[in-house]
Specification:
By secondary structure, the chain is α/β, with parallel strands linked by helices. The chain folds into 3 domains: 242 residues, Glutamine Phosphoribosylpyrophosphate, subunit 1, domain 1 (4-Layer Sandwich), CATH 3.60.20; 204 residues, 3-Layer(aba) Sandwich (Rossmann fold), CATH 3.40.50; 140 residues, Rossmann fold, CATH 3.40.50. Helices cover 36% and strands 23% of the residues. The strands form 5 sheets. Strands 3-2-4-1-10-9-11-15 form an 8-stranded antiparallel β-sheet, with helices on one face. A 7-stranded antiparallel β-sheet has the order 5-6-7-8-12-13-14. Strands 19-18-20-21-22 form a 5-stranded parallel β-sheet, with helices on both faces. The protein binds 5-amino-5-deoxy-1-O-phosphono-D-mannitol. The site of 5-amino-5-deoxy-1-O-phosphono-D-mannitol has 16 residues, from helix 10 and helix 18. 5-amino-5-deoxy-1-O-phosphono-D-mannitol binds next to helix 10 and helix 18.
């Protein structure tokens, strides 16, 4: 979705802004632009295309601009065009504004402004905001009053950054429903949709609350609530460093992030399991009395986060006596679900900003559920609106395809399931100890598996030209197959479908023909023999088969054209391992096909609109 960055300080603003926009490219975009202020003039440069194109256009601009706002646009209202790119300005060119989000009442606002003689130059909802600012400011002459008024008039979600001609050391922001973070350095200040945009310059962050208005200037940051009352928001120093946002010698972020998974898992478990026991109740603020009141668990998420939730569903069924329901956020938010104070509602989201997941959370919270966020972003909207948070320790994930956040979510959900099982007295201490002891061995096994990168690259060559692929698995391996199919679709654009292996003969088996390979996820688990029969049915129809199985398996390799073996682990842990070859296979197929792996077409890293 759109990315915003703003800067005021002693540096050349365009350099900081271009750097910031490049760091936000992962969000997905089709055009880019920036506004620069020097006190004398307010310059807007924007174009369809890449941030590098914008950078080239800026070479003609002289130095001396120390204030600016930048934007990468992912089209929603109005096509991809120079006129629709941000920043937008008012008729007199007094204000420039960038926006991420959607203004739901923009048609009504546009009509009202047009009746007053305002001429629109674009088809965007954003342009209505900047005209509204200008007309209100011409009445009041007071920017804070204008921004309070603006909040009353706008419906929808927005993160805005605004600058005014002749005011070269101030940028104003508003955040409601869309992500925005503020950063302060020495004699300089920043705003952005996401922390990596200004991570090279500062790690001192403030997270505005819903409706907050902020003024960022070299002297510091001032914040008011939506009614214009001054408020304090704490300054947090984030533990991310800039190297985490770089490729560090890898060709792509996706590949780097796949290879980070051992480290991510180690970090995620550190201090959270001690001497064979799960120790996250303190972090979550849970006590036995509270946990014993829950009768149900709802887990809600989108995309890969949903697939990690499906793995957790199977664990919770085994280790707790709770009734478990897992749903896609865009469905859950409109269903008549029985959610009440006896419900623990868990929201899984890497970004913590996914619009559907946030809407589902608000619904569950209003119904009285205890809400837990599993997210990678401290200070994200999700993290701020729940009762408890369990942070992933994945570090920034830049590739659009979720990889390390998926395994990080598995680890976090494992801990939640173990903690619930032991606090409710269902999971016996010796069983918990066995599980924890295997859990801490998983990072090492993941790293062993990552050494098979070269082998998987060779397999990718055999299958890259197929137009379709089926993924099958049972039990814990079904969500893994689903995640594998999603990875292949999003980075290679090959059509892929995941099926519960037992469902094949209820219809999908009709799809089998040469050129439709089947990838089977078949670890040595309690359903192994069942899946093996399904594989035989597939082989009987001459389909080519790729198998992800456990080391030492004697039967699967006899059936499959290509085999990737994973280290042995207990059934519950197989998703951590089986998913790794699927990530690597998708990456290598996409590479062979020359796809834009880190920023696949039409996709955005975090989906902040419904
Ligand atoms: O930030 P979230 O975890 O809420 O994002 C959810 C999905 O949009 C995300 O997992 C998406 O499916 C990824 N592109 C998958 O690789």
């Amino acid at each position: 979705m759109c990315g915003i960055v703003g800067y005021v300080g002693g540096q050349e603003a365009r350099e900081v802004l271009i750097d910031g926009l490049k760091r936000l490219e992962y969000r997905g975009y089709d055009s880019a632009g920036l506004a620069l202020g020097s006190g004398k003039d307010l310059l807007i440069i924007k174009e369809v295309g890449k941030v590098e194109d914008l950078e080239r256009m800026l070479q003609k601009v002289p130095a001396g601009y120390h204030q600016g706002i930048g934007h990468t646009r992912w089209a929603t209202h109005g096509g991809v065009s120079q006129a629709n790119a941000h920043p937008h300005k008012d008729g007199k060119g007094q204000f420039a504004l960038v926006h991420n989000g959607i203004i739901e009442n923009f048609s009504e606002l546009r009509e009202e402004l047009e009746r007053k003689g305002v001429v629109f130059l674009s088809e965007t909802d954003t342009e209505a905001i900047v005209h509204l600012v200008a007309t209100s400011f011409s009445r009041t002459g007071d920017i804070l009053e204008t921004l309070v008024y603006l909040q009353k008039r706008l419906r929808g979600t927005f993160a805005l950054a605004l600058m005014q001609q002749g005011l070269p050391d101030r940028i104003y922001t508003i955040r409601r429903g869309s992500p925005l973070v503020l950063g302060s350095g020495n004699g300089e200040a920043f705003c952005a949709s996401d922390i990596p945009a200004f991570l090279p310059y500062t790690r001192r962050i403030q997270y505005p609350e819903e409706g907050d208005i902020a003024e960022i200037s070299p002297g510091g940051i001032r914040i008011w609530d939506e009614k214009g009352r001054p408020v304090e928001r704490s300054v947090v120093t984030v533990d991310w460093d800039v190297s985490m946002t770089e490729k560090s010698g890898f060709s792509h972020y996706m590949l780097k992030e796949i290879h980070e998974q051992g480290t991510v898992l180690r970090r995620s478990l550190k201090g959270r399991v001690v001497d064979g026991k799960t120790m996250i109740s303190g972090e979550l603020g849970w006590n036995v009395e509270m946990v014993s009141k829950w009768k149900k668990v709802h887990i809600v998420a989108c995309g890969s986060s949903y697939y990690s939730a499906l793995v957790a569903e199977r664990l919770l069924e085994k280790w707790t006596d709770l009734e478990i329901k897992v749903d896609i956020a865009s469905e859950y938010r409109y269903r008549h679900v029985a959610c009440d104070p006896t419900t623990l509602a868990v929201f899984v989201s890497q970004s913590g900003e996914t619009a559907d997941t946030l809407a589902a959370l608000r619904k569950a919270r209003a119904a009285g559920a205890h809400c837990l966020a599993i997210t990678n972003v401290r200070g994200s909207t999700l993290a701020r609106e729940v009762h408890s948070v369990l942070l992933l320790k994945a570090g920034p994930e830049i590739g659009v395809a979720a990889t390390k956040s998926f395994t990080g979510q598995l680890a976090a959900l494992f801990l939640v399931a173990l903690q619930l099982g032991s606090m409710r007295g269902i999971l016996a201490p010796h069983e918990e100890e066995r599980l924890v002891n295997e859990l801490i061995r998983i990072p090492y096994k993941v790293e062993l598996l990552l050494e098979k990168d070269g082998e998987i690259k060779e397999i990718a060559r055999k299958y890259a030209q197929n137009k379709n692929m089926l993924f099958i698995g049972r039990g814990m391996s079904f969500p893994v197959a689903q995640e594998g199919a999603l990875k292949l679709k999003e980075v290679s654009y090959i059509h892929a479908e995941a099926l519960a292996a037992g469902e094949m003969k209820h219809g999908p088996i009709a799809l089998l023909e040469p050129g439709v390979p089947v990838l089977a996820v078949i670890p040595k688990d309690s359903l192994y023999e069942k899946t093996l029969s399904n594989i035989q049915e597939i082989k009987a129809r001459n389909a080519s088969l790729i198998a992800v199985c456990t080391e030492g398996d004697r039967f699967v390799p006899e059936q499959a054209g290509s085999v990737i073996e994973t280290p042995w682990t207990d059934e519950e842990f197989t998703p951590f391992l089986s998913v790794i070859p699927l990530q690597l296979l998708s990456f290598h197929i996409a590479l062979i096909l020359g796809r834009e792996i880190d920023q696949p077409r039409n996709l955005a890293k975090s989906v902040t609109v419904e």
